[in-house]
């Protein structure tokens, strides 16, 4: 698989799934973006090397074409000088460089087409990476929200399943019972005080009655 094939596979990774399942989504996404950037840099190098090959082929084509033109001029000079044999040799050399120039030209045109395709692919990959970078913060935020919800659900479950609320209600019941006991004690104390007071007044009344009876008895007996 070429560099662009690997790059496309990397881009198509299910980033949302990674963010939702990873223990540290931010770390995973940052590493993924780093891998993407490294692959992109490698792809840029490949495009650069391919373009360099195109330029090299174009230069070889230009050199071969110039050689063909130079040998054609030499053939002409040989003809003017009456040197037909030299002219034939020069034309043979020209034909050789013409063939080289045609081969270099064809290769250069093919290389140019490949370079253009690679440039388009490189641009598309760069766009996807930039999109992934923009999406990264949103994915991290979503992952953190999921973690928060999971933590809350776990806490609620542990509280309901671990008798935390039952323990709370048990202590609340104890407080209610203590409050009732305090109120009952206060009422009992007040009742006792009231009874003691009534007893004292009853004693006073009894003594007052006894005094009246004693005075009546003394009066009956003619005593003061």
Main features:
coiled coil, 224 residues, PspA_VIPP1, rod-shaped, Helix Hairpins, mainly alpha, 5 helices
Brief summary of the model shown:
Belongs to the PspA/Vipp/IM30 family. InterPro entries: PspA_VIPP1. The chain is an all-alpha fold and 224 residues long.
Largest sheet: none
Question: What's the CATH first level?
Answer: Mainly Alpha
Q: Provide the structure class.
A: mainly alpha
Number of helices: 5
- Rounded to an integer in angstroms, the radius of gyration calculated over CA atoms is 55 Å
- Helix % is over 70%
Nearest-integer average pLDDT = 78
Give the CATH topology: Helix Hairpins
Number of domains: 1
How far do the termini sit from each other? Answer: 141 Å
Q: How much beta, percentage-wise?
A: under 5%
The assigned CATH architecture is Orthogonal Bundle
* Tertiary shape: rod-shaped
Low-confidence stretches: none
H-E order: HHHHH
Number of strands: 0
Write up what this structure looks like.
The protein has 224 residues and is mainly α. The chain has one domain (3-161): Helix Hairpins, CATH 1.10.287. Helices cover 92% and strands 0% of the residues. It contains five helices and no strands. It has helices spanning 3-11, 15-21, 25-80, 84-161, 164-220. α1 packs parallel to α4. It is rod-shaped and about 200 Å long. The mean pLDDT is 78.
């Amino acid at each position: 698989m070429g560099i662009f094939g690997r790059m496309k596979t990397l881009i198509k990774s299910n980033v949302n799934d990674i963010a939702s399942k990873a223990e540290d989504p931010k770390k995973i996404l940052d590493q993924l973006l780093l891998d993407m950037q490294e692959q992109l840099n490698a792809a840029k190098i490949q495009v650069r090397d391919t373009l360099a090959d195109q330029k090299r082929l174009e230069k070889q084509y230009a050199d071969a074409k110039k050689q063909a033109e130079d040998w054609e001029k030499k053939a002409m000079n040989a003809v003017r000088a009456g040197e037909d044999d030299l002219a034939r040799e020069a034309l043979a050399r020209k034909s050789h460089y013409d063939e080289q120039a045609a081969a270099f030209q064809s290769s250069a045109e093919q290389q140019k087409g490949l370079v253009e395709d690679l440039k388009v692919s490189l641009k598309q990959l760069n766009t996807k990476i930039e999109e992934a970078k923009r999406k990264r913060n949103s994915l991290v935020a979503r992952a953190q929200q999921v973690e928060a919800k999971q933590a809350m659900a776990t806490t609620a479950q542990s509280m309901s399943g671990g008798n935390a609320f039952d323990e709370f209600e048990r202590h609340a019941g104890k407080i209610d019972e203590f409050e009732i006991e305090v109120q009952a004690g206060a009422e009992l104390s007040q009742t006792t005080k009231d009874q003691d007071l009534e007893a004292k007044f009853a004693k006073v009344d009894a003594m007052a009655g006894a005094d009246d009876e004693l005075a009546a008895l003394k009066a009956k007996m003619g005593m003061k």
